[in-house]
């Protein structure tokens, strides 16, 4: 049965639903995460100006990010080029440390004590930082807490800012992890074919005594001796992972997966992941940095431009993608290009509250809604929506987009973007016939209605244990919002639902756009929200 959601309230908690509840579930799933000289040099800023900017960034929940201080104003001359001609190379650990130090030196402007997260946030939005420096700023900002004080040089009472010493320590740590990875791969390959030769019983278990005996045996080949030396070095990391009888090939496989999954290795991987995200999404050949690629905006406004980044705003992105499919004219009419490197977004549900934001930078296009070949309109919309939530739901971060983070319900977003309320239909309490009728009505309207759907948490018991899964039976991620961009009835009370994941992955997979029979749809998805 259909219910009506109060679309004036923005929610942000993450309560897991009960299987028999009809309470709307908040969706906040985050997508799981694999050299040329920089173009342009940031304009130098005085210490007083930097202090003003930090104070501006830190003040109040209502933030005008387009007019913070006097350092990085919206200027037409810093607008990025139209279409990118070539890919940017991803920073490796050594290069990241070098470029990061260069960026910190520019931002510190000769003053000791390192750089604050707020100042990095301000420069994440500075279009003068491009190329390698853009990747470095994104990685330092996104992983600020992990990188902070790696060098252990700060004393109690000092302000904890990111320093060049921290990046030097990161470089050393990264090289150690890379060396361990190379050694682990060597051991893993060796264990598959040669471990049994040295096991004391000729079986699958290799004990520490077996390793020592083989190393003291003059008949052991140089190759085996070299690998056994590595096994001896890393034995304690693998011992008793799966058993107490010795090491098996499975232990070597597990160590390989551990290298970058925890501890220092995770920091290295997270930093590299941020660099990779900027390079692969914000700096790839063919990216269009203009609002629209085509002179006719309606040729550029399509769901493919919506590609969720590293924050939990699937509930918002799904609505935008659906609106791009059903009513692109509304999106076109919501965005005004001010011609000075800034855009003003006026949402249909908040016409008295226009929001002005700067054009997204390469770093922002890598961390948040990703850039595409049809322009940055979707990224501009996300940035404006994030600032709207900063102003109405409290501050959530140091850049506009992070206002959208933390999950939420799609109904308030539908209200904001379209000016219309939305109905909510839990599939557990809705018949197939009623859902088919509602979908047919939504997509036969002119213009078609915005329709989104979401998956619930797994609250079921598996055997004797409560072991919730992160995917449904057909591999749709749980607690995640999806667009419904079409419905094809079969004339027999059924049909196929076209579902799109805001991650924008490969078509015909749960990570992209896929057709789902209505029967299977109702077993995988927990609810449907439809614009009235």
List keywords for this structure.
alpha+beta; 3-stranded antiparallel β-sheet; 40% helix; globular
Could you give a quick summary of the protein structure above?
It contains 17 helices and ten strands.
**In which range does the helix fraction lie?**
40-55%
Strand share of the residues? 5-15%
Number of strands: 10
Strand order of the largest sheet: 1-5-10-6-7-8-9
Average of the residue pLDDT scores: 84
How would you sum up this structure, described in words?
The protein is α+β, with helices and mostly antiparallel strands and 532 residues long. The protein is built from 17 helices and ten strands. The protein has helices at residues 47-58, 93-108, 117-124, 131-142, 144-147, 164-198, 208-216, 222-238, 249-258, 263-282, 314-326, 328-334, 362-367, 377-393, 410-418, 432-444, 518-524; strands spanning 3-4, 335-337, 342-345, 355-358, 422-426, 451-454, 481-489, 495-500, 513-517, 527-531. The strands form two sheets. It has a seven-stranded antiparallel sheet with strand order 1-5-10-6-7-8-9. A three-stranded antiparallel sheet has the order 2-3-4. The chain starts with a strand and ends with a strand.
Write the layout of secondary structure elements.
Blueprint: E1 3-4, H1 47-58, H2 93-108, H3 117-124, H4 131-142, H5 144-147, H6 164-198, H7 208-216, H8 222-238, H9 249-258, H10 263-282, H11 314-326, H12 328-334, E2 335-337, E3 342-345, E4 355-358, H13 362-367, H14 377-393, H15 410-418, E5 422-426, H16 432-444, E6 451-454, E7 481-489, E8 495-500, E9 513-517, H17 518-524, E10 527-531
Antiparallel strand pairs: 1-5, 2-3, 3-4, 5-10, 6-7, 6-10, 7-8, 8-9
Helix pairs in contact: 2-4, 2-6, 3-4, 4-10, 6-8, 6-9, 7-8, 11-12, 11-15
